[in-house]
Amino acid sequence: MSATLLTDLPPLAAPAEPAYRAAPGTPTMPADASRAEMAPLDRALSQAPLGAFPLLEAAFGWQELRPSGWHRPAASTAIAQTSSPAAAARLASLLSTLTWANVVRTEREGLRVEVSAGAYNRITRALTGAWRSRTQLLAAAPGVPESRQAALGVWRMAMLTGGVDAHAGQLTVRAGSPAAAQTLVAAAARLGMPAAVDRPREGGHPVRVTGRAQVYQLLTEATGQR
Hints:
Layout: H1 5-8, E1 19-22, H2 31-36, H3 40-46, H4 54-65, E2 76-82, H5 85-95, E3 101-106, E4 110-116, H6 117-132, H7 134-138, H8 145-161, E5 165-167, E6 170-175, H9 178-190, E7 195-197, E8 205-210, H10 212-223
Parallel strand pairs: 1-3
Antiparallel strand pairs: 2-4, 3-4, 5-6, 6-8, 7-8
Helix pairs in contact: 3-5, 4-5, 4-6, 4-8, 8-9, 8-10
């Protein structure tokens, strides 16, 4: 993998694209256009292999991006909404292990990841169960390779939903809640790299990994590139 990963990632072979459609009265966003909007790192993260625990990665994204408040039932119901094409595409791909998911662009809410109303309760129950299992899974013995995949999935989704602030030897993402921040700390420990939660700021709880080798390892493994 290039040492200039953050700015110079090569294009990856694209997996099957999630379906993109538009809300009524909104132009459709073609899959090619969605890829063009992605920064190189976002594109690499969104196209990484799904790993052994796609539901845990999806559950982290759901916790960070799920809509607030009550929404009128409709043919399709939003699991998440975001301004990030990469986060939306990744979450839709992860949910495809359970159901058909669409990414819809709206004028007021940005991108919405939607599932059918009939599948919504089943999907949210599955995501809730995956989220509740995170502590036990991330605390598994170091010899359990699957738990490492779970830790990478959590960090992969955090980089898509919380953005990446990277400097020489340091990488910071923003988690939306204390629980999400502590999950990232536990996941980093499972990967053998210490992480710290900085003082909350507007927009979230910064979680920081320090060390050039650690940052390089995290980005290499999370994107699946060498």
